[in-house]
Amino acid sequence: MTHKVLALKFRPQQFSDIVGQEHITKTLINSIKHNRIAHAYLFTGSRGVGKTTTARILAKSLNCKNGPTITPCNQCKNCIEISKSISLDVEEIDGASNRGINEIRELKEKAQYQPINSKYKIFIIDEVHMLTNEAFNALLKILEEPPKFVIFILATTEPHKIPPTIHSRCQRFDFKRLSIKEIILNMKNILKKEGYEIDDTTLFKIAKKADGSMRDALSILEQVINFYFDEEGRKYVDAFLNYIDTSLFNELIDNILKDDKEQIIEKLKKLYFNGTDFKNFTQEFIEYLENLILIKTLHENAKDYVQETPENLNEMINLSKKCSEEFLQNLLLDLTNNFDKIKYSEFPHIHLELILLKNFSQKFFDTGERLEKKEEAKKDWNEILNYFSLKKPLIYGVLSKANVLKIDSDEISIEIEKGIIDKNKIKEALNNYFKKVTIIEKEKKIPFKHEVLNHPVVNDILTIFGGEIVKIVEYNNKQRN
Ligand SMILES: Nc1ncnc2c1ncn2[C@@H]1O[C@H](COP(=O)(O)OP(=O)(O)O)[C@@H](O)[C@H]1O
Ligand SMILES: [Mg+2]
Ligand SMILES: [Zn+2]
Questions:
Q1: Quick one: which ligand is closest to 44's CA?
Q2: How far, in Å, from the CA of 139 to the mean position of ligand 2?
Q3: What count of other Cβ atoms lies within 10 Å of the Cβ of residue 351?
């Protein structure tokens, strides 16, 4: 017996089997019922969400011996041949490997002949965005005046690459990524038919990994089945899936909020020694932070968008209230900006560690927390400096050399050197701690030696006479007199 992969074995054969794309199947069913068939369809959406599957079901619905019908019989010669993609009247073309003008001309030729055994001559062009411009032009010619019996179903993962002229002649259907819920449900149905049972947590992990693609989910599921039923093997599900539980990210954020450096360092070290794939880890962390920001913005409503276990989600809601949006955004930015570094580093955990520690103090900016911290800050200029040294090195550079003239509960006056940084930037930064900020700028004093070495006259003398500077002596006014 040949082994058939799950994704193929369970390819939907009816509109009603297609999961999660009801907005599309309903419209298609209606148009078949009312005999309003378009001549060209454009199916868009990421990989493994049902584009090809739907195209074949549509083709069967139209060409079934009982057709047009909304429930193809799947038993007649036409249906069977379409399912096997060997029907002479339903041609599947891979746009990626048939992208030239000649292939499309050939197709145009074929489109002139009546279907052999069916009502319609159907062309399914996958990855249609790969066609060359000339090929698109040739395709446009056919779409402008298609023979009555010809139907095109164009499928693409990149609809923005389809020329508008083609686009406007198609009825477009956008396939969505499948939700974790939908994927889990479908896997459960399939497992039941196969006589297997896998626990919900594992199914959740698989569905999450599949990232909206049913095909990916089924192929991961298939691999998991291979070792899941072995007691020893079951322990390796997480490792196999590269699965990182969201609770770990929740803990890391909590550690930051609690200033718990040791915990962070310990966690990252442990991950490192466990052989964690930090590229994957960082990607997941980035996704997690995006979700946390979403929650911070949408509050409870985010539940519809963030796919998580109820426990993790509740903790995320809880954390989102505690940290500022600015902190989350900065952390997200730091991680995305440093993604390549982390990816190629021999010590990725150290990079991550530095990023997390660097973002430690930003959390002060959240409303509740900030007031509290402000109280302390008033008393302690060093703590403020410490904050800037971690978070805003440029401002720290200026403040560390500043003269503090006055500092009390909600007011500060400082003296800084002129021209190093925009005064308002400093003011803005300090306004997070003090209501009233006074900044006095004093002229920057250029070191005498520096001035001499860069003086045009000195330079000229050196080049013209080939001299050499032996010693620089500064005479003050008194001495000069
Ligand atoms: N919406 C869906 N409902 C049920 N199964 C699906 C769905 N989308 C994809 N699949 C599964 O994934 C496989 C590949 O789907 P396919 O239609 O070829 O994806 P696409 O053409 O969008 O890349 C199918 O054989 C089926 O097993
Ligand atoms: Mg496809
Ligand atoms: Zn049939």
A1: 1
A2: 20
A3: 20
